[in-house]
Amino acid sequence: MLDLARCRAWIEAVATAVAERKDELTELDAAIGDADHGANLHRGFTAVQAALGGDFAPETVGQALVKVGMTLISSVGGASGPLYGSAFRAMGKQLATPEADADQFALALRSGLDAVRALGAAAAGDKTMVDALGPAVTAFDDAVGKGLGFADAARAAAQAAEDGAKATVPLQARKGRASYLGERSIGHQDPGATSTALIFTALADVFR
Ligand code: ADP
Ligand code: MG
Ligand code: MG
């Protein structure tokens, strides 16, 4: 079950991991982009921490995630802001109950992936965050289908996202800034796929 406390802990863990790994994310982006992915996400999740603090008192996990999404959209200039923002917002809109069980969360994740695809038009293998997000959503779904609980499903999703991010190394980018490099984008791990893995690892860690 993802209740509000766990949801807040998840987002807090993402913010902490982004702060810790922002230089690494920026270095990945320096190789095939414009060296700002770590800074972009750090700005975004710092704004998210502020937005979820103070007197914001969501009643559902969905309201909290919509807030996360709106804040990312308004605070991050790079491509990743609107993409992650749309994903969190779409997930939140799907979750109208105070807590989300694994089945509900699987549907929400699917909505998040659909939102990223609708906005960015990236397919599997285009060397984007979709190459981590897609496998993570499928792994979560499969785990839930097998009757596993939230914790195990989140762990499977994190592993799939991690594997998906690593598998972007040999790919040539076909979407986003990295695509401007053509074949020179080959041999580098996609920054957005890497941050997607970080987000799912943070989710799994909340259930440890
Ligand atoms: P920008 O490229 O605007 O500087 P960021 O550096 O923050 O933005 O984010 C780059 C990441 O965004 C890429 O590594 C990739 O994973 C993701 N990305 C870029 N364009 C797309 C797209 N059209 N669809 C999905 N993901 C994308
Ligand atoms: Mg960039
Ligand atoms: Mg940029």
TrEMBL record:
One of the Pfam families matching this protein, by short name: Dak2
Superkingdom in the source lineage: Bacteria
InterPro entries: DhaK_L_YcgS (IPR012737), DhaL_dom (IPR004007), DhaL_dom_sf (IPR036117), Dihydroxyacetone_Kinase (IPR050861)
PROSITE patterns: DHAL
GO biological process, one term: glycerol catabolic process
NCBIfam families (UniProt xref): dha_L_ycgS
Record-given protein name: Dihydroxyacetone kinase subunit L
